[in-house]
TrEMBL record:
This is Enterochelin esterase-like enzyme. SUPFAM superfamilies: alpha/beta-Hydrolases (SSF53474). Residues 1-19 form the signal peptide. GO terms for molecular function: acyltransferase activity, transferring groups other than amino-acyl groups. Keywords: Signal. The keyword Lipid metabolism does not apply. It comes from Pseudobacter ginsenosidimutans. Pfam families: Esterase. The keyword Signal applies. InterPro entries: AB_hydrolase_fold (IPR029058), Esterase-like (IPR000801), Ig-like_fold (IPR013783), Mycobacterial_A85_antigen (IPR050583).
Length: 370
């Protein structure tokens, strides 16, 4: 557990929003980000992956943009003749989704031109750098499932807690089919909205189901931060409160209120980053609850940790190529040699970011519930 926490903390520190290449000539084909507020022209992105920002702050002395989880990757803006502030990133950014915020004279603000997403324990601005393979998570004219909010009773926390549940196309029709369930956890500082908003999990599922690539299943997403953990204090996180919420409260609620196959053989748990740490610990603590395990930039399993491999149908390990891919690959090989059905996946040219995890879900989904 200690080594997993250290690896997770190291991953947070290493996050960056910039790609490695840095073209010398910027192509002036900038267009508004697809995540802008309606009618807003800025921020903008170009075909090379550069981002350009414009902030109206006529009386400010300094304005900059901090990109990435934790605010890394600063871009200083320059005041224009019309008193607005503008600037372009020094290099192209990684493809996919990125959090950012605006610093005005030392204060932290959201960009009024962009939509907001919950990350780093606050609502932050979001920008999308178009990916060459974005088709798999794009909105298409296919049958769509639903993402519904549920409030479930939680005696252990003396309140009602929230979860979002994805039900696949056809769930609400005449069929009375029961479905397997994936419990999918967000990362540190995010919440239960992350996988459907930033991760586009519902669109990934809709598209893959429409293409016949996967069998339909339900996804449940809930808040995993049952403790008040500040950035840098991850070592103090205790799994027991969330484990109680998930195992003793949420799963029984889902099985009672949705058409699930209420068996461990048809239940999976996965998580990104800190959600992977939660997945790792809970699946080992409760081996009779889940049969499919997936850690997305969230550490590894070792053969010695799993006492009864007959209960485990799949172990999926993934990360970005800019993280620690050798660790993921080697762990999967060791698990295979020990007789486990283990699969590794490395997302090319991405780091600890949502394109890594979108791609990971795309690779994981067809392997589940076989």
């Amino acid at each position: 557990m200690k080594s997993l926490i250290i690896a997770f903390a190291a991953a947070l520190v290493s996050i960056t929003g910039f790609a490695q290449t840095n073209p010398t000539q910027i192509i002036e084909d900038f267009k508004p980000s697809v995540l802008n507020q309606p009618g807003q022209e800025y921020p903008q992105v170009n075909s090379q992956g550069y981002a350009r920002f414009k902030i109206i702050a006529p009386h400010a002395d300094s304005v900059s943009v901090s990109l990435g989880l934790g605010g890394r990757g600063g871009t200083r803006l320059k005041q224009m003749p019309d008193s607005s502030w503008m600037g372009t990133t020094e290099g192209p950014m990684d493809e996919g989704f990125h959090y950012y915020d605006i610093k005005i004279d030392g204060g932290k603000f959201n960009d009024p031109g962009a939509l907001n997403y919950y990350g780093s324990v606050r609502w932050e601005s979001g920008i999308e750098i178009p990916a060459h393979d974005q088709d798999f998570y794009s909105l298409k004219n296919v049958p769509h499932g639903n993402v519904v909010q549920v409030l479930f009773p939680s005696p252990s926390t003396n309140t009602s807690r929230r979860a979002f549940v994805y039900t696949p196309p056809g769930y609400d029709g005449k069929s009375k089919k029961n479905y397997p369930v994936l419990y999918l956890q967000h990362g540190w500082g995010e919440d239960e909205t992350a996988w459907s908003n930033q991760g586009r999990a519902n669109l990934i599922m809709d598209n893959m189901i429409a293409e016949g690539k996967i069998e339909a299943f339900i996804i449940v997403m809930t808040y995993g931060m049952t403790n008040d953990v500040k950035f840098g204090g991850i070592r103090s996180f205790k799994i027991e409160p969330f484990q109680t919420v998930l195992i003793d409260e949420l799963i029984p609620y889902i099985d009672a209120n949705f058409r699930t196959i209420a068996k461990s053989s048809h239940r999976a748990m996965a998580g990104l980053s800190m959600g992977g740490m939660e997945t790792h610990t809970i699946t080992l603590n409760k081996p009779d609850v889940f049969s499919y395990y997936a850690l997305l930039s969230g550490g590894i399993y070792t053969p010695a940790e799993i006492k009864d491999k007959s209960k485990v149908k799949l172990i999926f390990l993934s990360c970005g190529s800019k993280e620690r891919p050798d660790g993921v690959k080697n762990a999967a090989l060791a698990l295979k040699e020990a007789g486990f059905n283990a699969v590794s996946y490395v997302s090319e040219n991405t780091a600890h970011e949502f394109l890594t995890w979108r791609r990971s879900l795309r690779e994981l989904a067809p392997l589940l519930f076989k």
